[in-house]
Write a structure and sequence with these properties.
This protein is an alpha+beta fold. The chain is built from 2 helices and 5 strands; from the N terminus they run βααββββ.
Length: 89
Amino acid sequence: MAYVIDIDPVARAQIRQLPPEGSVAFVDALAMLELVPERGEPLNADNPQGGIYQLPFSRGRGLITYLLLADQDRVDVLLVIWIDVLGQP
């Protein structure tokens, strides 16, 4: 069963700013979220069932924050962060 991915407008703008390497890795991460979104880390360790998760991608240079609505088979991507480190391949 695949989850439906919904991307928040703020996250869409952040995705458009990803470099080519980040874009490719982001697409791979989305494919994983469609199948097993539970693999992300809970945002709040004190409330692991809270429904908000984070998933690093591209060797930790990117981070997706998302809401898992398992009862609706849906993942809402809320934020996509990219860390641009000078000199890092």
